[in-house]
Design goal:
single chain; alpha/beta; five-stranded parallel beta sheet; elongated; binds 2-keto-D-gluconic acid
Length: 313
């Protein structure tokens, strides 16, 4: 039986890509110097895309691949894939939900603790000799008794809420619509920010959520408030956030995601009130394997004529 032809859009999880390369005929678009020529030469064969990373999968690309049936993403967030364009062309899109919820929630909790307690900065304080030279590290903020506002209470948000409550935090949230959960609901992001000590962003990146964290929301969070972002860089107005941190108009920020990854504006590096992670939300051996297994299974099932497991609505 001939192997179906797939495109890889980026370099990704090595074991997943090795399995796919064994089971499919793989074409590495991200390595092609002349992308148009590369696509033209393969247009009559490509039936699937295994999406890794940021390369946009939009109508223009889809139209260059008339035999395209399915796009399987490595990751729960599908913001680089134009879902309307896929729908209009009846192309199936899958992602990797659920298998990463607990892991991303662990990272979120870690980032909240690091941000309020300035733990990475305290590590640097010791290593640079400041402890011996200047004395004890300055006192920081506790989590217990504080309110965590969750913008985007989905499956990951609920896993974060559970962990934050174990640390003594109170939970509130805002979603487009109210959910059947025991947490107070706020009608908009600014009200949630005003009612929270720590605002965490977990919402998917869409046109609607682009720069949803803006000056108005940060003003509502206020000089005692902390922002944590584990969603996507595009949901925050990054230059405004940078200015608010520099001018101490908010107390601090914990950021796992940035607008133009892996490029981070160097002005962030000198901030003492920010903790910066290189997009490690789901970055464990176990979770990345589970994400890859789900992506592979979706591709296998599609090409075996079975329904995929995790189709994006
Ligand atoms: C990874 C993520 O960025 O699942 C997502 O949406 O953001 C992450 O788990 C990614 O997909 C791996 O490169």
């Amino acid at each position: 039986m001939t192997k179906p032809d797939l495109i890889f859009t980026g370099k990704g999880h090595a074991a997943t890509q090795a399995t796919l390369e064994a089971e499919f005929t793989v074409h590495k678009l991200f390595e092609a110097n002349e992308k148009e020529k590369f696509l033209k030469e393969r247009a009559d064969r490509i039936r699937g895309i295994a999406s890794f990373g940021h390369l946009p999968v939009d109508g223009k690309l889809m139209d260059q691949l008339p035999k395209l049936e399915v796009i399987c993403n490595f990751g729960v967030g599908v913001d680089q894939i134009n879902l309307d364009d896929a729908k209009a062309r009846k192309i199936i899109v899958t992602n990797t939900p659920d298998v990463l919820n607990e892991c991303v929630a662990d990272t979120a909790l870690g980032l909240i603790v690091c941000t309020l307690r300035r733990l990475p900065q305290s590590d640097a304080y010791l290593r640079t000799g400041a402890w011996a030279a200047k004395g004890a590290y300055p006192l920081q903020s506790s989590l217990g008794g504080k309110t965590l506002g969750i913008l985007g209470l989905g499956r990951i948000g609920e896993a974060i809420a559970k962990r934050a409550m174990a640390c003594g935090m109170k939970i509130r949230y805002h979603n487009r619509s109210r959910k059947d959960v025991p947490y107070p609901y706020d009608p908009d992001p600014a009200t949630l920010a005003r009612n929270s000590n720590v605002l965490i962003v977990v919402t998917p990146a869409t046109a609607e959520t682009s720069r949803i964290i803006n000056a108005r929301v940060l003003d509502a969070l206020g000089p005692e408030g902390y922002l944590v972002n584990i969603a996507r860089g595009s949901v925050v107005d990054e230059p405004v956030l940078l200015r608010y941190l520099q001018e101490k108009k908010i107390a601090g920020a914990g950021l796992d995601v940035f607008a133009d990854e892996p490029r981070v504006p160097p002005e962030f590096f000198s901030l003492d009130n920010a903790v910066l992670f290189p997009h490690v939300g789901s970055a464990t051996v176990e979770t990345r394997k589970a994400m890859g297994d789900l992506q592979i299974e979706n591709l296998r099932r599609h090409f075996a004529g079975k329904p995929v497991l995790t189709r994006v609505a």
